[in-house]
What we know:
The chain is α+β, with helices and mostly antiparallel strands. It has helices at about 35-40, 60-65, 250-270, 285-290, 305-310, 320-340, 350-360, 380-385, 415-420; strands spanning about 65-70, 75-80, 85-90, 105-115, 130-140, 140-150, 155-160, 175-180, 210-215, 215-225, 235-240, 245-250, 310-315, 345-350, 390-395, 395-405, 425-430, 435-440, 445-450, 450-455, 465-470, 480-495, 500-505.
Amino acid sequence: MAITNGPLLNSVPAAQQQALSTNYLDFTGTTDTTWAQQYLPDLMEKEAEVFGPRTISGFLSKVGAEESMTADQVVWSEQGRLHLSYTGNVSSATAGANTGTGVTNVAQITIENDIDGSAGFSAASHGIRVNDTVVVSNSDGIFKCLVTVVANAIIDVAPYGQSALAANTTADGTTILVYGSEYGKGMSYVTAAGTTNSTDSRGANQPSIKTFSNKPIIMKDYYEVSGSDTARIGWVEVAAEDGQSGYLWYLKAEADTRARFNDYVEMAMLEGELALAASEVQGSTIVSGSTTNATLDAGTEGLFAAIESRGNLTSGITGVNAATDLAEFDAILAEFDKQGAIEENMMFVNRATSLAMDDMLASMNSYGAGGTSYGVFDNEEDMALNLGFSGFRRGSYDFYKSDFRYLNDLATRGGINAASAANAIRGVIIPAGTSTVYDQQLGKNLKRPFLHVRYRASQTDNRKMKTWTTGSVGAETSALDAMQIHMLTERCLVTQGANNFMLMK
């Protein structure tokens, strides 16, 4: 069924005051001046919010914490996987030297990458050592083997069974997993070449640490109204976003500016991009303020960019078929199993995806009823419902689903999604709880929420959300016959452990 929009409204804010016939506060037009001034029309004195609750703020307050910072960037380190697992190929079915007397079927395996396919991985730096026991898996089968020689990126392995590993010098999807080690009685460690050494010369594996960073951006806006207009009385009672109401138009305009700025803050944390070195933005005096500061980095990494760069993407759960959607959702769970397996997750989805998930769950005969722990809401289901979340469980995972207005509203991401359905962002899955990271500023391990905001603050200036008034109206700080209300924030988003996040596109 096609849906046709109603008549267009003059609904987008403008930088200039416009005296239009559609402006219900303006009755000075030549065609109605006499009538309007002599005979008060029957006006509905309450302003109509035809677009409903228009703000989108609240996303970050539901999922993230806020913490101050004092530097120009926030740097954190994330520890990699605990276990050793790699991909490679069986480069030769012939053993190298020092394989032992009577040893046959010893094959050489060339390590190509770690199990995640990490960029910048050095094959020669793998952590497999002589006397390690490994599981080797490829199209020929699964083999339990003992490592006999390690030579940079090449390892020799001797199968525990009689089956030999077939050589395949091309990439054949061989996976190598270390599952233990084996030594004889009184046997010491051995060298990489497989020869016995009386000293403990086998190298120790070190944790794999990756360092990430983000930088805050400065956001500003202001509202200005002349001294005369602050006293202008309208016929229509207007309501501000903070609950104020009255017949002074500037109350509405000022509140709208505040609400829009708060939404900008949230949208920037979602949509932010770091400027590339070769981009026109990088080094621009518009951002840096001068050529002296042109080397300063521009932009900030928002949630969507962080997940696309370091997290997971899915195109599933489209609402085409409930059974298909369930299979696609289970594929998401399988991917989470490969990552941190965080048991509690929050889902912020658009309307279509939310309905598709409702249909998927409804097809399962009241699936998940009473099974969700609501641990992130202090185990109170009422709290979750009051915040707009509904919970369900699949496997060992609890999910709290909420409609995300930002992805629905035509004036925000909803309009972008409608214009480019192929690249539409339909939702995000965010792990609840905390993870442990190394804070380089404090020099110790700390537990942080997976998603949180850092804002600039010190004893001198707190830039989390600054508001101040200038002019001769209210503040009386200058000769300007106006009231200027300024807003400023300096902050960035920390997406920690992005491998546990999922972006639905």
